[in-house]
User: Which sequence fits this backbone?
């Protein structure tokens, strides 16, 4: 007979002969056996011995077996210990009552050793199986904990990807800024040599005047003619004015970059949304102009229409929101740089308004080729992209969704149909609580 000798059993019985028989048999097969001669003693012992199974006599002085079983099942520490009743009662009513109280089986007196061992082994096998299942559940919980840890690592990786996307966007920005700065810098640099020459000529001329003043002689006159003082005095202000234009353009770009990034405003702050939109457009100006990005020789500038409403200052994470504008506008420009089938002037329209004095709405619409419904449904999914491999990470709009919906408790929707352009709707509350 297959025994489980590592288990412990508590015998609760007030009959010495029954106790002796059970002790001899169970000890011989290797069980760890304890004895209690009443229900009260059994309840006192249980916290210290914690048996794997209880053989419980029904008819005992003091509290009987039924009441003892009821107490066992009411206690959180003992309710899962299997109980086998031992009784001389043969009617099914009492057996059914015991089973309803939580007993798992019955042994009828006088005790048959083979029957006792068989019933004990069945229940202990069930008990051990239950333990194995509990252990398996615990292992699965540990596995789940490891999976959660892996998920945290994945989120960390996602954060790195987010940063990579930001760097990708930054790369596009740098390229655009370099394009915009190149012309004014080249203009200033090209005129610096002339400015230096003119200044040197004027200095030499003034030095002569200082030596010869107040007398005007032929040497001063000769130098004035050699330097063409009249031309210098006429052209020098024009050069300085041109240089000023270039410097102001550089200042405008740098200021737009600062407004866009909001490096000094990482937290919640009330800002002018229109200023953020305008700074983003300034940084994208190189992409809005017709250039060699497209093969179509008929390509024209992308027209930007601003339909700004009267918005109050909005409490938001300005730098992050500007990144959203950048991602959406870049996508709109990409769409418009594709082949334009209807020959319409490529146009982006930016509209803003306020809703119910609680939310602001920003609509960015293009008249590009539009996208299909199946793409619209996936457009905010991480890593989803319709661009060729190596062109994008597929995280731009996923990040935008996270910023608008999770970070700002707002709404970000994409509405589009093939041939009818695309509209992105951004809605965020005027005021919101900081997210820890």
Assistant:
């Amino acid at each position: 007979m297959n025994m489980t000798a590592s288990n412990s059993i508590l015998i609760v019985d007030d009959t010495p002969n029954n106790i002796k028989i059970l002790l001899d048999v169970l000890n011989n097969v290797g069980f760890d056996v304890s004895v209690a001669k009443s229900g009260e003693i059994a309840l006192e012992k249980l916290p210290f011995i914690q048996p794997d199974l209880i053989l419980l006599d029904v008819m005992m002085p003091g509290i009987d077996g039924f009441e003892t079983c009821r107490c066992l099942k009411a206690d959180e520490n003992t309710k899962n210990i299997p109980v086998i009743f031992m009784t001389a009662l043969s009617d099914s009513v009492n057996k059914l009552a015991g089973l309803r109280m939580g007993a798992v089986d019955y042994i009828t007196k006088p005790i048959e050793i083979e029957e006792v061992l068989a019933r004990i082994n069945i229940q202990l096998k069930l008990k051990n199986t239950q333990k194995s299942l509990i252990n398996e559940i615990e292992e699965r919980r540990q596995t789940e904990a490891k999976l959660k840890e892996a998920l945290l690592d994945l989120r960390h990786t996602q954060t790195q990807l987010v940063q990579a996307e930001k760097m990708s966007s930054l790369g596009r920005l740098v390229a655009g800024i370099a394009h915009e700065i190149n012309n004014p810098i080249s203009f200033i640099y090209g005129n610096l040599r002339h400015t230096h020459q003119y200044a040197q000529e004027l200095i030499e001329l003034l030095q002569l005047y200082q030596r010869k003043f107040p007398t005007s002689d032929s040497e001063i006159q000769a130098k004035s003619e050699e330097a063409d003082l009249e031309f210098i005095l006429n052209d020098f202000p024009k050069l300085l004015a041109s240089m000023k234009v270039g410097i102001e353009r550089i200042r405008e770009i740098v200021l737009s970059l600062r407004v866009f990034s909001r490096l000094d405003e990482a937290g919640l702050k009330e800002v002018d949304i229109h200023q953020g939109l305008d700074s983003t457009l300034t940084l994208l100006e190189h992409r809005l102009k017709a250039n060699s990005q497209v093969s179509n020789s008929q390509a024209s500038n992308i027209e930007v229409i601003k339909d700004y409403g009267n918005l109050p200052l909005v409490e938001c994470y300005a730098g992050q929101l500007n990144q959203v504008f950048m991602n959406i506008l870049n996508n709109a420009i990409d769409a418009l740089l594709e082949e334009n089938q209807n020959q319409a002037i490529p146009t982006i329209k930016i509209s803003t308004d306020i809703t119910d004095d609680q939310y602001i709405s920003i609509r960015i619409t293009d008249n590009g080729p539009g996208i299909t419904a199946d793409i619209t449904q996936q457009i905010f999914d991480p890593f989803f992209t319709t661009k060729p491999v190596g062109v994008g990470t597929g995280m731009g709009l996923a990040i935008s969704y996270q910023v608008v919906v999770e970070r700002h408790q707002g709404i970000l929707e994409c509405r589009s149909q093939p041939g009818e352009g695309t509209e992105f709707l951004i809605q965020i509350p005027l005021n919101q609580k900081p997210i820890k």
Remarks:
- The radius of gyration is 44 Å.
